[in-house]
Amino acid sequence: MKYLKKISRYLLLTIIVSTLYINNVLAYGYDISVTSSTVTVGNNVTLKIQGSQIAGRFNITSSNTGVASLSTSSVWVENDTQSITINAKKVGKATITITPNDITTTDTNPKDVSLNAKTITITVKAKPTSGGGSSSGGNSQSTTPTKSTNSYLSSITVDGFELNEEFDKESLEYTLTVPYDTEKIKINAQLEDSNAKVTGVGEVNVSTGLNTFEIIVTAENGSKRTYSLKVTVEEEDPIEVKIDNETLTVIRKRKDLPKISEYFEEKDITIDNKNVEGYYNDTLKYTVVGLKNSLGEINYYIYDSGKYTKYEEYTFNGTTLQVLDKAVSGAKKTSFVYDSSKITSYQEVKLDVLKNTYALDNNDIGGNQFYLFYAINIETGKESLYQYDASEKTVQRYNTLVLDMYKDRSDKYYLCLLGSLLLLGIVILTFSITMIHKKKQSKKKINLVKEKPSKKVIDEEQEKFSFDDLPIKNKTKRQD
């Protein structure tokens, strides 16, 4: 039993050590900091958001913009640090809330995660009063004038139309609805402080459905405020389609569509007896049209006999590809971010061979930056497996022979590992059975020694023996 206990302890220790070695847990999350939680009126403090092993958008809000206003309402963090300027407007307190949104890890196994919001409190104090006199000659001390922090507008208007909401400089979002035949509008914005600057005004193009415009005001000290204007252009006779329980509107004018690669030519098609301007690729035999969702986002869809399939193309270092939703055999599904878009991909490089995944020789990789995905080259029409290098943001065709070699090597290693574990188990079992058998044999010998009669007992038994007791002698006497 002592041997079995020792073996059990060794096995348990081996399993624990192996588990700690194999499972490499990467910490992910974010931290916030501020240069100072107390500030005087007219000054600024800097809020920093530092991400660790994550990528996603963070929304920042102030509970009292009259006390503390923000240079921006959202930032994108991807394993880096982003800074936001907080401007002290007047005496009081304001709570700044940082809320993570659509966060994805950037480790070897990327996944969507939910992170809690964090808050900090900013206290704004009044400016200190300075003495009026001078110790020599009555000359007053000169001070550098403080730059204005005013980033407010006093009005937003659109020529020929009236906004749905009454303007309030603290309110940052406004809406407007215009007739179906409207192609352009002129946005006007009046600054509250003449030292500030404004962008996003003037004549802009609009298309059917929702159009969103940002009006950005930059104060003299550099702090910014963003106003949003959402303009909806009515559809004269809309063509609506339903895809995955979402209602989308067909864009009928080509001028309202986003840019598409040069490998498509203009083509008009008929949908619901109405003319729709789209595009056509002769190599792939694709007819694509634009659909707009409820948020005003326009995406291309492949149109084929009344059916719609989403079409997404990306240009990587001069090569335009249509990414396919197709699994890579033996690899794990993940994603990477390119041009603010999340693209589904796969990774075959992993550190856990015990789970029958594939690994390279170099297991010292801190984070896998290579992603695999199937795509069609829009120019040639050929489908291939591609590899994206997240570090250099480049794409190239992947050599599948290399992938097969890694798989074969990993399979052999996996079989050897299983064989070794099986052999170890047999050795342990054989050793245990042998030890148990030896122990039983020892017990039997001890019992035999205890049960064997001594010589003295045997002699006494022999002396007591008499032939008269034998049945044959008794028979002879009876005959006499």
Topology, element by element:
Layout: H1 2-22, E1 29-34, E2 38-40, E3 44-52, E4 54-62, E5 68-70, E6 74-78, E7 81-88, E8 92-105, E9 112-113, E10 118-125, E11 153-158, E12 173-178, E13 184-191, E14 197-199, E15 202-205, E16 209-218, E17 224-233, E18 240-243, E19 246-250, E20 265-271, E21 274-281, E22 286-292, E23 298-304, E24 307-311, E25 313-316, E26 319-323, E27 332-338, E28 341-347, E29 370-377, E30 383-389, E31 394-397, H2 400-451, H3 455-463, H4 471-479
Parallel strand pairs: 2-10, 12-17
Antiparallel strand pairs: 1-3, 3-7, 4-6, 4-8, 5-7, 8-9, 8-10, 11-13, 13-15, 14-16, 16-17, 18-19, 19-22, 20-21, 21-22, 22-23, 23-24, 25-26, 26-29, 27-28, 29-30, 30-31
What does this structure look like?
The chain is an alpha+beta fold. It contains four helices and 31 strands. The protein is 19% helix and 41% strand. The protein has five domains: 29-125, Immunoglobulin-like (Sandwich), CATH 2.60.40; 153-233, Immunoglobulin-like (Sandwich); 240-311, no CATH class; 319-398, no CATH class; 418-480, no CATH class.
Task: Give the key terms.
480 residues; six-stranded mixed sheet; Immunoglobulin-like; 5 domains; flat; 4 helices; seven-stranded antiparallel sheet; alpha+beta; 31 strands
